[in-house]
């Protein structure tokens, strides 16, 4: 019996998946550990481990436990984390061409937007913005809407005087132009802020309304395609460059469009669940006249693009290509 046990133990230790990993990669993000988004990242980590024969292992730090959301990108750059999933717009002015994706009405769904964003990166139109890290894949959530606690927003005029959580400066400029008070705040902090009246509403996709439980605090939902947020999964360059070529190849197999689309599918599923949750709770879905919002949206687009052009950035070129890709990604 002792010989059998010894044989089993030696066989287990000889198995590649049982061996200690060559690299244990610390992955930091701000979504809750029980969210579908975190589970999507875990699936990626398990696939990476299997494909590398156990030589790559991912250790997850969800819910801002390793780096706070606004500092996540710098945290990876400095080596506090090895990998992060975060929002480009949380790092102001670093990803201005990427944030063209945030302009109103750009995408129809997370799958659609992620196809556009990853394609812009793969074509080299926005790659220079990420020179200080090793990008694995990019994706977006679906359309972001307005969700308010005490007042229905039917037209842009209804925004005046309201304190609305804005995800990034692009959305802040749009809200401010209509007399709202945009409040910068990471998504995990919105629930208590709505509860205490610090916020009157949030700009969120339906996914975030479910994941961060903000459907419990906002009863009015205005489904106007206000913005779309870009996300990245990116890695510390020093750690990446120190890996042998075969492990870099495994990472390459787990980068790009395939995993961009897998995460996008999770977002779209959560969008459907978040909307259904609000409907089942008897919330008011506010009717919207798209024509009332189009002048505001056009003003926002032109202001953002012209601002980048003044900085000698090819904003109009990237925007036009994004529109072309948006058509291509619908087919």
TrEMBL record:
<dbReference type="GO" id="GO:0055085">
    <property type="term" value="P:transmembrane transport"/>
</dbReference>
<protein>
    <submittedName>
        <fullName>C4-dicarboxylate ABC transporter substrate-binding protein</fullName>
    </submittedName>
</protein>
<dbReference type="InterPro" id="IPR018389">
    <property type="entry name" value="DctP_fam"/>
</dbReference>
<keyword id="KW-0732">Signal</keyword>
<dbReference type="Pfam" id="PF03480">
    <property type="entry name" value="DctP"/>
</dbReference>
<feature type="signal peptide">
    <location>
        <begin position="1"/>
        <end position="20"/>
    </location>
</feature>
<dbReference type="InterPro" id="IPR038404">
    <property type="entry name" value="TRAP_DctP_sf"/>
</dbReference>
